[in-house]
From TrEMBL:
The chain crosses the membrane at residues 13-35, 47-66, 78-99, 111-134. This is TMM80 protein. Its main location: other. The gene is Tmem80. One of its GO terms (cellular component) is membrane. It is a multi-pass membrane protein. It comes from Origma solitaria. The keyword Glycoprotein does not apply. The keyword Membrane applies. It is found in: Cell projection, Cilium; Membrane.
Amino acid sequence: NNSSQLSSLPLHILLYVNGIYYIFYFLATLAMIIYKSQVFSYPDDFLAPDLAVLLLMAILEVPRLYLGFKGNLTEAEAPLGLSLGLTVGSVVLCVYLLLWQTYVLWADVLLNALLLAAYALESGLKVTAIAAFVS
């Protein structure tokens, strides 16, 4: 009789907080891109890629969080592993917005640094949860 619960409460809380933070992050980053396009001489062919990266990131975030919640609550390593894979994609896009978007303001640095820290912590908890599920 194995009645031990393996799902991770810290991971569940962090996924929830990341979901809320990402909504704020998306809106703030979108507002800053709009602001930068008005205030700075933003080349038209540079505006589209920056917006596309933000949009792609938002599209990735939904299955990333869903699979994270599902994998954790059902104690299944496959959805959690997929969520971890999507996190890698989100990290790459976040690094783009941190380092390579056309104009990087201090607020961009702060928002992206917080998001990267949350992704790192979440990834560590996912790996720990997967290890617990597999053992």
